[in-house]
Model the fold of this input.
Amino acid sequence: MSVDFFYPEYEIVRDQNRCISCRVCERQCANCVHAFDEASGKMYADDSKCVNCHRCVSLCPTRALKIVKSGNTFKTNSNWTNDYMKEIYRQANSGGVLLSSMGNPADFPVYWDKILINASQVTNPSIDPLREPMETRTFLGKKPAKIERDCDGNIITKMEPNLELALPVLFGGMSYGAISYNAHASLAQAAKSCGTFYNTGEGGLHKDFYQYGTNTIVQVASGRFGVYKDYLNAGAAIEIKIGQGAKPGIGGHLPGLKIVGDISQTRMIPQGTDAISPAPHHDIYSIEDLHQLVYSLKEATDYQKPIIVKIAAVHNVAAIASGVARSGADIIAIDGFRGGTGAAPTRIRDNVGIPIELALASVDQRLRDEGIRGNISVICGGSIRNSTDVVKAIALGADAVYIATAALLAMGCHLCRSCHTGNCNWGIATQKPELVKRLNPEIATQRLINLLNAWEHEITEIMGGMGINSIEALRGNRLMLRGIGLTEKELEILGIKHAGE
Amino acid sequence: MKRVYVQEQWCLGCHLCEYACAFANSGQEQPGAGGLDMSRALQGRAINPRIKIEEKDNISFAVSCRHCEDPVCQKSCIAGAISVKDGMVHIDQNKCVGCYTCVLVCPYGAVMPAESGQVMQKCELCTERLNGGTPACVAACPNRAIVFEER
Done:
């Protein structure tokens, strides 16, 4: 019915003076947007199929293409926005749940951008990271609460298992299935090269990647895909995924169409069956249940590996974190509402959860107030976009951060938010062999390494400016932060003063 | 000697190498023209590059001169137009008589007639253009499927 006609949201503008009809755009578009017209010898584009992934724009050798937002609009209405109207039309047509990919793009406050960092002047001199040692090494896991001695008076140095990171940044969980083999290979190699960790997500660990085990965090999620003894022992740590920032309280569903070949083997489910992750773990209904799973996993791995519990940032996150800290987990990962996803119901993604900055500050404060901060390390994730976000997160109380969207961007993702279509033109969120090969791990690995190196340089530079020479000294150092344009309440939750105070 | 090698598993069949080659050998490059020089050189024309994509279904790879150590094209040349310079096989187009023998004997199909049809052409590693720098096809490949290296 004509009511379902939508004028394309983005338009492809082709400069015919530049276009040489080389047809690269046509060959590189998995959505079949571009076509060559033999009669006129010219290229044409069907804007309605365009997802604005910029593959064609990036590869056009003569810079003949650009993508602009279409000027077409319904009558302007601040309440019934264009998007809300279109969503009604789409649902009236399909009767289905709206799906979206990647993190919440809505216009909510980004607190990182309302926090400013301090620097030293005169009294507490800054440090030049090029001349003086600067420690970015971080350990994640339980820390001893007090010095203990044996009967001879010697200090007992036996520690709980800890993860050692060369810099406080890890790659967040993205499953094999959600992202491609080549994307996983790149993350694994980059993590190994940079002395940090990547996370398998819930899709199991491909047999080719067991060799990167010392830099791998293996995930145990509600679907338990690919979980068995060797998998648990393959990684350096095990993460129990309770929730995800993009869709707190919601399970996952990888369509059977994507469960082919290696993915079916890695997930240990038959080819063609839907991979359904239930919303809850069916064996966890309390902190006591969580305690049981934590200790089951510890038992299975001979108490050699730290256990991470990943939760989404929701309203009572501080109380939940306190419970997690008491469950025996070594590390808690908190995922904010901007966190990415391969597919989530749009309504959930855009309306459920809370900003990671507030969640992190309240969790750190609560754990400190209860005197259990040393029992557990805190990883925060959910849209860490640059090195200053990392510094601010650590000053707010994080031990380290997860980056996933940033890592995808480094590999080529242009945030077109169409992962759920499986047609990723950059070879990342797809399982089609002809698209997967577009991501050469040799290139993507180097780009990930470059990103982490660049951030490390910036982090040491910023720390030096503050007169701080180690991540340890920055952690929870909220005096190094000031808020700008924030209300009393927001400042109180963040535990920081306003700029000028 | 550094040669152009092709890594078939990374070739996307985008054909950018062909266009980069055609442009590099067009003599119309203007530094700082921001791509407009490529448009001027190639617009409205069928290109005749020295590297060509072979493809079928989802398999593709680029083929250009291998710069054989003992080139059959050189042996077959009746005019003595083909020589090996520092490991690179070179056609002297002033000597070429256009007999097409080299085109017929090349086992890779890497020698082809120039646009005029009177003389032959083949990949010469962009030596004239760049004096030994990275060949244009290698620089243009978005997925490192074509590499220029010592092996």
In short: The radius of gyration of chain B is 15 Å. The longest strand of chain B covers residues 2-6. The helical segments of chain B are 16-24, 36-42, 72-76, 101-105, 127-130, 136-140. The beta strands of chain B are 2-6, 52-56, 59-63, 82-85, 88-91, 111-113, 120-122, 146-150.
